[in-house]
Amino acid sequence: MSCVLACVVKPLAYISLPLLVFRSVASSTPAGRYCWRLTVFLGSLVVVSTWGLVVAVGMTLIGRRTDVNYVVARTFYAIASYALDITVEVEGEEHLQTRPAVMVGNHQSMLDILYLGRMFPRKASIMAKKELQLSPLGPWMYMSGAVFVDRGNSSRAHKSLEAAGEEMKAKGISLMMYPEGTRHSQEEPSLLPFKKGAFHLAVQAGIPIIPVVCENYWRIYHKGVFDTGTIKLRVLPPIPTASLTAADVSDLAARVRDEMLDTLREISVKVVIAEKSTGIQGTTPEPSSTVAELEEDEGPAVTNEVLSGVPETPSETTSESSEFIKAARGLKMDGSVSEYAAETDDEGNVLVGRRDH
Prior knowledge:
The protein is of the alpha/beta class and about 350 residues long.
C-alpha cells in the first residue's frame, strides 16, 4: 500500500495541485480562460500523440496500419471534447464509407484537429511531402499509412501524384487534404481560392472527391477567445471524376469550392457585423425642416438639386451653414452620393444594405 502511495498517488497529487490552482486563477479573466483552455487542448494533443506511437507500432505489427489514424483520432476527440466541452455533430457521415476517395475540407485553425478526430474514417490517411520521411515524424507517419509525395519540381510532383493515386486504389484508402493551402479564419464564413493538387490527384486516379465542410466556429475559437459549444460538420455526397481529364480540373475545383462555400454559409451561425462609419467624423447634424420638406415633396431628385447649388468657394457661403456645405460638397465630389441619395461604390454601383468587412 505504501508503495502505491509513493509511486502513484503522490506524483498525481504533486501534478494536480498546480494545475487546479492555475485553472482557478486563470478562469477569473477572459484572457486567463483562453490560456487555460488552450493549455488543455495542447496538453491533450501531446498525451494522445505519445499514445499514438504505441498504437502505430502495435497496429503495424498486426497489419492494420491504415487504421492507426482512426484510432488515434477517436482517442483525441474523446479526451479533448470532454475536457473542453466542445461537441462535433456530423451530418452525412455515411458518405465517408466511399473508398478510395480524396476528402477535401476547409481549414480554419488548429482546432480543426478536433473535428478530424470526430469524422476521420477507417482506412484513411494524410498526404505529406517526401522530405518528412527523414524527420522525427517519419517513422510514425509511415506506420500510420501516410502517402508521401515528392514536390521538388512539377515533373516529379506529377509522377508522385500518379503513384499516390495508384497506391490509394491498390490499398483502398482515402486521403484528407486542405485545398485552401493554409489556415483561413474570420468572423464571416468564407473560403480562400482552391489549389488544384487534390483535384489533379482525384482525376488522375479516377476516384471521387468528398467535400467535408466544417461550420465557421469563430464564435467558439479565435485569438483571445476559446469557448464551449457545438460545431456542425457536413459531409457532402461524393463527386465522381472517372470521366474527367486534366482539362476539367479547373472547372472541377471551382464547382467543388462553390458547393462548399454555399454549405459553409448555410450551416454556420449567422453573424451580424456592426457597421462602421466611413463618412464624416462626428455626429451628423439633423437636417433642417426646410431640407426635410424639400426631400419629402420633391423626392430623390432634390438631392442633386441641393448639391448643384453648393457654391464652389467658401466665400460664397455663410458661416452658419459652412460646415453643412463642406460636407455636401465632399459627398458630391467623391461620388459617394448617387442621384437617388444612395451610397455607391467605386464603380458607381448603388449599394443597398452595405456592411463593411
